[in-house]
Write a structure and sequence with these properties.
The chain has 195 residues and is mostly helical. It folds into 2 domains: 43 residues, Orthogonal Bundle (Arc Repressor Mutant, subunit A), CATH 1.10.10; 130 residues, Orthogonal Bundle (Tetracycline Repressor, domain 2). It starts with 14 loop residues before the first helix and ends with a helix.
Length: 195
């Protein structure tokens, strides 16, 4: 077992144990699925004591959410090129990869499914907008010169089509990121012209 922080509640977590738990939860999700995952199983997979896991998280959903949010902040970050179309295209490509190939994306999708009938998970997801936060950085660069559309609505317009396509089980290979980015930019231009 990994060395664990000893002592009273409230001491800083062992970064090594924390990382092991976050990696374990991703692995277990892929191996056994959300429903079969347990806090005991997460602790065993991470090589830490159950008390260590419960000291930091109350539920498996909290662990999955933290793991997903941390990974999403890296996987969905894109370097700004100064070209709106290129930046939006890169973001949509990253979003497709995140939702279809990443363990963090699988965790996010599992949590979304669970949130449909578990209000605690729904509240957890509402506490931090993983996809919206990542897209907002790109969208703000594009819409900052126009007040035609609020950033949150623009963010939803960028994420929505890709998210719906993938969440509804359609073939992600049929998504063309550049076309989605072009459609998004046209929508912004149309809204700007009508205001």
């Amino acid at each position: 077992m990994l060395d664990e922080e000893r002592g009273r509640v409230g001491r800083p977590r062992s970064e090594r144990a924390r990382a092991a738990v976050l990696h374990a939860v991703d692995d277990l999700l892929l191996e056994v699925g959300y429903a079969a995952m347990t806090m005991k199983g997460i602790a065993e997979k991470a090589g830490v004591g159950r008390q260590t896991v419960y000291r930091w998280w109350s539920t498996k959903a909290e662990i999955l959410f933290e793991a997903s949010a941390a990974d999403a902040s890296h996987e969905l970050a894109i370097d700004a090129t100064g070209d709106a179309l290129d930046d939006l295209t890169s973001y949509v490509e990253a979003l497709v990869r995140f939702l279809t190939q990443s363990p963090a994306g699988a965790a996010y999708r599992a949590l979304l499914g669970e949130a449909q009938h578990d209000s605690a998970v729904a509240d957890l997801l509402a506490s931090k907008d993983i996809l919206g936060d990542s897209a907002r950085a790109v969208v703000e660069r594009v819409v900052r010169d126009t007040a035609a559309i609020p950033v949150d609505l623009a963010t939803a317009l960028l994420i929505g089509p890709t998210f719906f396509w993938i969440a509804s089980g359609r073939d992600p290979a049929r998504l063309v990121a550049r076309e989605l980015a072009e459609t998004f930019l046209r929508e912004l231009q149309d809204r700007h012209q009508t205001t």
